[in-house]
Amino acid sequence: MEKQPLPEKVRAHVFITGTVHGVGYRLATWDKANQWGIGGWVEEIPDGRVEAVFEGNKELVEAIIRWCYRGSPDAVVKTVTVEYEELEGLKDFIIRRPSELSIKNEPKDIKVKTINILLFVHGVIPHNSNFSETKLYDLFWEPVKKQHKLSERIDDIISVNWGHYLTDTEEARLDERLSKAEEFMAQQLNLRAKLPSITNSSLQPWWRSLLHPLQNLVWTQGIGAAIYYSGIEGKIALQLAAYYQILEFLEKYRHQIERIISKKETTIKIRLHAISNGLGTSIVNDFLHGLFSPENDPEQAKEPTIANSQILAEEKRETVERYLFWRVAAQKKHLELGSIVSMASQLPLLLLSSQRVINTFANQETLSIDEIGIPEQTKEIIWKVFYGIDDISAFPISPLFGNHPAIEDITIELSNNYHNYLSYWDNQVIHTHAAELLNRRVVS
Questions:
Q1: What is the pLDDT of residues 283-319, one digit of tens each?
Q2: What DSSP assignment string belongs to 34-74?
Q3: For the chain, how many structural domains are there in total?
Q4: Which residue among 67, 143, 160, 311 is the one 20 to 30 A from 322 at the CA level?
Q5: What are the Cα distances from residue 330, in Å, to 326, 370, 434?
């Protein structure tokens, strides 16, 4: 009788992307591989993917690779990438965890390379303004970068825009209608009209003459945008717009972090320095809180429900995946906070939209500073907060964090037109303080 040839054996190294963490994907893979007598292992990796190795009969290995596109019942698989490698002779199939990895021949005393990135997030820019966010950022950065050789020490700049650009794209972002809506409301309410004449005005209360100017002032301070952000739909729209831009920019550094994210030693890290104004400060605070807080915060718009739009749904999917990757990077110290400069912050008001914060304050407790990336034990100033002494919509922040020494609240004198949104960006006192802060916090 002619001897039958032995079945060909192969080793496949597989990466699966999609919703594959926390949905029983590893257990289902382990069960299927053991049913079919396939050796190897499966593991969740920090960037949200599942990694697996299958060794065995070629037909069975190819069959389990096809099965990987389906996976466990709750999984949503996006891609399956396969590379064939030399056999190692694996017989058993196990669920592998990161602690089981042995990292060999790692050099000691590795020098850490730090990439310093400056993040700009503006506040409200009126719809009828001739100033773009780029001009605002230039007003700030041009005088600051000349000090302490900062232009040579900042590696990259992220310039975020939100709320006021109706771009010529297939579909506008959700947030891009905001400034037009506010302008229309101002016109309809006629807030800029003169106070109507009142019969026997001398008998009217003295405060009535202040009411109309205060209404105008409140409107120009961007309170409408703050209210929009306090709602679920508004927070989703603005966070999706800002987060998408930040994370898309960081993609060019991701491959460098991916190579080392599972290792104990850190050879490269991103240090983020945030400059923000008005509502932009709340956006930055929420972004940092989602990255650095010890536990996942359900209030962060990581999985928002958005308008029925394929374009926006794709942006959301990319943003969620990238956000979760950089959260892992932050937890593993590959992403860190360098410094924060906040101007005209409405943060104390907007924190009241958070049940987490309400519960904290109701218990007579203050917020924990390490939840936004500032080490609790630090004594060095990392966050400088500027607010005009006459600005009715800007507040100090330090008391909400227990007057922590890492936060410094600074009152400043603004120009005569103190409610003008340009005043903070073009303020020399702020420039000097910001340059000094960056000089201390930018490290190589």
A1: 999 999 989 987 654 344 344 444 455 666 777 888 8
A2: HHTT-EEEEEE-TTS-EEEEEEEEHHHHHHHHHHHTT-STT
A3: 2
A4: 67
A5: 6, 12, 24
pLDDT attached to residue 113:
86
Q: Please choose, from the candidates 352, 193, 368, the residue with its C-alpha nearest in 3D space to the C-alpha of residue 295.
A: 368
For residues 153 and 286, membership in a common domain is answered with yes
Domain check: are 433 and 334 in the same one? Answer: yes
Q: Answer whether 385's CB lies under 8 Å from 410's CB.
A: yes
Taking the C-alpha atoms of residue 238 and residue 266, their distance in angstroms, rounded to an integer, is 33
CA 41 to chain centre: 33
CATH number at residue 71: 3.30.70.100
- Given 38, 67, 99, which residue is the final one in a domain? 99
Rg (CA), the chain: 27
Q: Which residue has the tokens 């831009």?
A: 245
Q: What is the pLDDT of residue 108?
A: 42
Q: Are 19 and 144 within one domain? A: no
CA distance 35 to 130: 67
Shared-domain flag, residues 78 and 154 = no
Distance CA 271, CA 275 (A): 13
Same domain, yes or no, for 422 and 295? yes
Q: Please state whether beta strands 268-277 and 335-343 pair in parallel, antiparallel, or not at all (unpaired).
A: parallel
Structure tokens at 81: 């990438």
Length in residues, the chain: 444
Measured between alpha carbons, how far is 178 from 244 in angstroms, rounded to an integer?
18
pLDDT along the chain (444 residues), means of 10: 66 93 86 88 90 93 92 86 90 72 40 90 78 87 95 95 75 80 76 52 60 62 80 88 93 87 76 95 93 63 47 76 88 92 92 89 93 91 92 89 95 68 88 95 84
> What pLDDT, in 10s, does the model give residues 101-130?
433 333 344 467 899 999 999 988 876 666
Element containing residue 439 per DSSP (H, E): helix 428-441
365: domain CATH number?
3.40.50
Assess whether 94 and 159 both reside in one domain: no
CA distance 243 to 442: 23
| Any domain includes 270 | yes
94: left (phi over 0), alpha (psi -120 to 50) or beta: beta
